[in-house]
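One-letter codes give the sequence; the fold follows as tokens. An example follows:
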Amino acid sequence: MLVMDAFLNFSRQFLPDKRGSRTMDSPLVLTSRLIPSEVDDMAHGLDVVWKYPLDFYDAAMQYKYPREVFIEQIKHRLDTPAQYEGMGSRTMSPR
């Protein structure tokens, strides 16, 4: 259904003529298989927990640097079976 949406609703006539819009804003490539390690690395910093532990809030009150508090992110799951499933199933995992 999502693939049909891309085919039915995409037309270059609706894209703006501004610089970059013809290439950056248009879905020119459709893929059926997503490989997380090939996605832009800015997306790898996404938290995968549903609940943050109390330690996280204590660290925020103490103005600690983000690197001092471990919260599981997608980058910690790359190249494992967990990169595709189980998001939010754990609150924290050990380093």
Observations:
- The CA atoms of residues 43 and 74 lie 8 Å apart.
